[in-house]
TrEMBL record:
Keywords of the record: Membrane, Transmembrane, Transmembrane helix
Spans traversing the lipid bilayer: 6-26, 46-65, 71-92, 104-125
Name of this protein: DUF1761 domain-containing protein
InterPro entries from the UniProt entry: DUF1761 (IPR013879)
Amino acid sequence: MNVYAVVLAAVSSFVLGGLWYSPALLGRAWNRENGGDVPQGHPAKVFGVSFVFSLVAAFAFAWWLGPAPPLPHAVLSGLVVGLGMVAASFGINYQFAQRSTALWLIDGGYHTVQFVLFGLVLGLWH
């Protein structure tokens, strides 16, 4: 496993999240769909813990892919994991929590793109 590629994959996820949930993209819609009163924790804790989770996800995905995955396989695997596992699991929870389809599309879409990025990085950098 290329540890540097895993760290880069986690960083790419973090950058994607910053853009995805920014007011310039989907941040306003995400906030509205959450009722507009999303509790805010200490930024250092929120970002620090989020980055640790990104690292965990990137390491797990890299382990699952194995060493030197071919790029098409890695990217397709990212799509399958992101959409077919993570977003689908969110969908189950969101249905029981009575959360909106729009919120599911925002959050599930982010994680789908996140894992596709993981696959891109891990498929390119062995």
